[in-house]
Amino acid sequence: MQWRNSSTNYGLVSILLHWLVAIAMVGLFALGYWMVGLTYYSSWYRTAPDIHKSVGLLLLALMVVRVIWRFVSDGPAPLQSHGRMTRLATKLGHGVLYIGLFALMISGYLISTADGRPIGVFGWFEVPALITSIPKQEDIAGLVHEYLAWGLLIFSGLHALAAIKHHFIDRDPTLKRMFGRADD
Q1: Taking a C-beta distance cutoff of 8 angstroms, is the pair 172, 166 a contact?
Q2: Could you give the CA distance from residue 101 to residue 43 in angstroms, rounded to a whole number?
Q3: Who contacts 61 (Cβ-Cβ below 8 Å, separation ≥6)?
Q4: Closest-CA residue to 149 (of 13, 54, 26, 15)
Q5: Helix, strand, coil: what percent of the chain each, to 5?
């Protein structure tokens, strides 16, 4: 398998970035959903949010790398069997996922830094609080974060269902391309 994308397949870098982002997003959603129910007396009360923030900031860095990689290595050409509407839906869908993920992570950052403290990332480094003057910053960012998280989880599920539909109903190589196997 090649590192870079080809005209027919995604390369190893794109595949790894895609699946790392997908796993991190689902894992962060699950952790976030679980941690909001923790009580002050839970041994995870401080640890779970610290993990959530750290992984979220690493995911932000990974998404920046992913965007840069999209410019460095163009994706495969659209399939000839995909009509104009399918191609448009693909572009719009990926745009929603990218913009939504960045908005989700920025809202998480705004929640975490509303009190002016930096965010520690696994004790390796800290990300400073740059914006702290928005009225009700933590509350507003919290609502945005919650709704975006649910929306992106649902939209990602639809994204996965579309790939499965292409594979089993349309019998085209859309899903195989994401595994680098459309040429097989």
Answers
A1: yes
A2: 29
A3: none
A4: 26
A5: 65, 5, 35
The identity of residue 82, as a single letter, is H
Give me 25's structure tokens. Answer: 């997003």
Element (H, E) at 127: strand 125-127
CATH architecture of the domain covering 12-178: Up-down Bundle (1.20)
pLDDT above 60 for 184: no
Domain boundaries, given as residue ranges, for the chain = 12-178
Question: What tokens does 98 get?
Answer: 């990218």
Alpha carbon separation from 171 to 59, 146, 164 (Å, rounded) = 33, 36, 9
Rg (CA), the chain: 19
Q: Does the pLDDT of residue 127 top 80, yes or no?
A: yes
Asked whether the whole model's pTM tops 0.90, one would answer: yes
